[in-house]
């Protein structure tokens, strides 16, 4: 099945380069480009892409606000694409907030072409782009700057079983399903079921939000 991708970036050359690279893939179709967040939101609601590559810093409306609008649409708007943030190290605070809003991960703008293609495929498949250690470090750094949440986030953990809590802890530490299965001596399909239940019970969209939640609720502490 062909993946529909949209590119939102204020630099025309970046958009053109990404579009050429992605359109050269037999399973990817670039359905639109936009120079700022506001136009990106409007275009997304007309073209219904599976994945939106979203730059962080743009005029008119930045990528963070655009991601929020796409991932928490108003009543009557049912389409919610996966959002992959495009960033550099100096805007990590924006990326952290984007992950909280429901973005499926982030990619550095100077990443190798193969990484961009792989990232689009991972996110389109419904997973979160959490493999790079920098992602976990990013979340841990911000969790370290903010005291563990008290009240509602921590209370939501009570909805989980002991096994589900163990699985969430390992997800937050960056373990894959295969690694979690090995650690807990479970079948990988069983781990997938537990992850799915954790996301449902905590009302989280994917593993990226699960990692953020685990740190903010105090379940996992930076440096553990």
| Largest sheet report | 5 strands, parallel
What is the radius of gyration? 17 Å
Strand content: 5-15%
Low-confidence runs of at least 5 consecutive residues:
none
Report the span from N to C terminus: 40 Å
**Portion in helices:** 40-55%
N-to-C series of helices and strands: EHEHEHEHEHHHHHHH
Structural class from helices and strands? alpha/beta
Q: Could you give the order of strands across the largest sheet?
A: 2-1-3-4-5
Give the beta-strand count. 5
Q: Characteristics of this structure?
A:
alpha/beta; 224 residues; 11 helices
Describe the structure.
With 224 residues, the chain is of the alpha/beta class. Helix content is 52%, strand content 12%. The protein has helices spanning 12-23, 37-47, 63-71, 92-101, 113-124, 133-145, 152-156, 162-172, 177-184, 188-202, 207-216; strands at residues 3-8, 28-34, 51-55, 82-87, 105-108. It has a 5-stranded parallel sheet with strand order 2-1-3-4-5, with helices on both faces. Helix 4 (92-101) crosses helix 11 and helix 9 packs across helix 10. The longest helix has 15 residues, at 188-202. 41% of the residues are buried. Strand 3 (51-55), helix 3 and strand 4 form a beta-alpha-beta unit.
